[in-house]
Amino acid sequence: MTPSDFIVFGAPKIERDEIDEVVRCLESGWIGTGPRVARFEKEFGLYKGQRFAAAVSSCTAAMHLSVLAAGIGAGDEVITTPMTFCATVNAIVHAGATPVLADIDPLTMNIDPARVEARITSKTKAILPVHFAGRAADMDALEGIAARYELKLIEDCAHAIETEYHGRKAGTFGDFGCFSFYATKNVTTGEGGMVLATSEEDLARIKMLALHGMSKDAWKRFSDEGYKHYFVVETGFKYNMMDLQAALGIHQLQRVESNWLRREEIWRQYNRTFAGLPLTLPAAPEPNTRHAYHLYTILIDAERAGISRDEFLDEMTANDVGVGVHYLSVPEHPVYQEKFGWQPESRRTEIRS
Ligand SMILES: Cc1ncc(COP(=O)(O)O)c(C=O)c1O
Description:
353 residues; 11% strand; binds pyridoxal-5'-phosphate; globular; three-stranded antiparallel β-sheet
């Protein structure tokens, strides 16, 4: 096998425009946070119809800052899904709050609003749903619960750049919408993230926290406007995006819709080709929603398929097709078992209690 025979899972589609933009950025003398980041924020905000956009270093950073900016910390609980990447739960933990899991609807793989409601306590401050694989979570129900119990709503839109639900775009329902531009995502900057906020104040706080807690527009301190003093007003983080990353993002974003059409075509081709196999395929998208087609997830029942999940992964790899597991559920990881006593079987306890 030569390396080029192997189909890399989620390999990014990088084209000439972004390569040229990266070169121009390198030659400009300004590779850190600057004008290209500002342009990417503006254009991403326009794409989502939400003008308060802050580019950051990852979706994990975006969620950490959003939980903090929502005023959530020690002693508070945030309800989220067990069917997600560890980053969703870690962001809650990093903010000092306690994650609480509400199980999914096995058909949609998205958090089940009835289970969310059942897990609300006097300490609950927010709901953090994931639009799993790019399929919109049940936002009518989640918005309703958030409004009834006066909870913040923070959306993990790592898979959901193109996702829409009942005519509205993912990331614009909640107080904060958090996006990922990691290498495998539908728009990539290598590593990167974005927060959509609903107010200028929230946006300013996110931007400040993302750059050490330095006062407004501190990134301009070395610009051609001349050196400006800045003041550190909070102990923030180093979560800013670089112009080098935004150089990729600007052009990736311009192709997001044409890429989406291709994703849809491939998704349908998979559906047709796999229809007769002993597998559970992704549920059809709900009416009046738009799926981002980020991950095509199949379920393998070892008895029906005559092969276990992990044997299947090995077979696919042996046949030069890159694969991934999305995901081991959060309670399957040792750290959460130790920290919170979670177990994959906990759902049964939760139902009974
Ligand atoms: C559901 C989900 N949330 C959050 C993240 C974290 O994104 P990032 O790598 O940009 O921090 C990912 C990344 O794969 C993800 O799949």
